Amino acid sequence: MVEHGFAFGLCGSSARKLRHGHANLLGGRALRFEMFGLTALEVGDQADVARFVRNGVLPRHFLAERPESRLRAYVEDYLRVEVAQEGLVRNLNAFGDFLRASALGDTEITNFESISRECGVSAPTVREHYQILVDTLLGAFVPAFTRREKRRVIRAPKFYFHDVGTVNSLAGRRGLDPGSEAFGKAFENWIFHELQAHASYSGLHYEIRYWRLASGIEVDFILGEMEVAIEVKATGRVRPQHFKGLEELRVEHPQAGHRILVCLEGNPRKLENGILVLPALEFLQRLWAGEFTGTLQ
Fold first, then answer.
1. C-alpha span between 77 and 232 (Å, rounded)
2. 211-240 pLDDT, tens digit each
3. Where are any strands of DSSP class E within the chain?
4. What's the whole-model pTM score?
5. What is the largest CA-CA distance in the chain?
6. Where are the domains of the chain?
7. How far is CA 2 from the centre of its chain?
């Protein structure tokens, strides 16, 4: 239909089969393009941090005034359609327990043994369940940045769900008051979603990793080969201790490029040591404008 100016986008194939190469991709003539949830760029002037953090990034949920019932239905439908019908697991009840445990551990270092004890299944089974989440595009692992380290670093990956609304529902979060631990984790998850969408839509496809010393000092996101380092703090009042990770990162990696603390303060500022303190929406505006990622091309 090229002569009529039509182009067709076809969907409906199993994401898991696509990942494992069992779907017909027309001999390489079909291009794969992954679509993410809503981004701040797409929402524009209506972007609202609290709504993103509370409702998530799926359009129907983001626009809802009370998304809880829709989120619950989405989680239940996922269990029934994606897992039950495709026969991905034998014990749906155990998988449901795993989903809750993995949601509670969202944004944290993944401990397969701890989750296996909590869910009453083996650690290899937990690994398989996580792979199901990756294959069905429900979440992704974020590996550690471990290159050229002087001090011992943590090497285990973290796991992030793609939609924070889904995490909120699975983890049973209520209210999500700013300042709470749950709000902070949800805020970090949302920033990860924006980074992942930007890496894909911009065509840069840079790696997203985290950096953490064995002492516990860490930086949430490292883009590329340390061109950009981002610490996420869901606070409206940044304190000196919030810069510790970014400061230690420069000691370990003097070549580190942009160092940014993303927060809920109202105004941007730059510290004498070069760290940028940016409100979340301004950071995203500048990210999508390509201000920080030019060296990643």
1. 32
2. 999 999 999 999 999 999 999 999 999 999
3. 139-142, 158-161, 208-212, 218-223, 228-232, 258-263, 269-270, 276-279
4. 0.89
5. 63
6. 2-296
7. 37
